[in-house]
Write the structure tokens for this entry.
Amino acid sequence: MIMDMKTIYLLRHGQKDSNGHLTAAGKQAARELQPKLPHFNQVVSSRYARAMESAQLLSGQDPQVDERAGYPMAPQDVSDAINLLASQKGSSFLEAAHEYNDAMVLADIHDQAHDLNGLIDELLAKIADGQFALVASHDITIVPAMTQRGLPFVSIEPLDGYVIRQADEHVTVEKL
């Protein structure tokens, strides 16, 4: 590893239950992934339990909560309709949201992705060379944010994500 490189792991939270917490399988998967990850100098997550729990299990640290790692909230009736569509199609909420094609929802997803990219850029400026940061977020925010950085629009599974590296002023993004 080049020591003058800064690295951010941007990961989707683990498998969640109907109450928004990690399932036993989600917790176990995070525990199994943790030894494969570096020591994180900065740990950030959204305010949602599944993201905070994932960040803590992956890093051994309590995360700093940052709303930019969260996701936009659609009105309940729209959210219910998108969830129903996702269930019918066997797709992710993100994919269903794009198919549902509500202009306000899509604009909110775009804005939240922009905010997540701002958080990533801020972390790259904040951490020192040779340091690592972890951001635990959500598919509906991560994928559009990475699309804004030129990657293809592909949903990600729980505890999957991207590695963002900066050496000098050059930033690269790759799928984990």
In short: The beta strands are 5-12, 42-45, 64-65, 132-137, 161-167, 170-175. The first helix runs from residue 24 to 33. The chain has a mean pLDDT of 94.
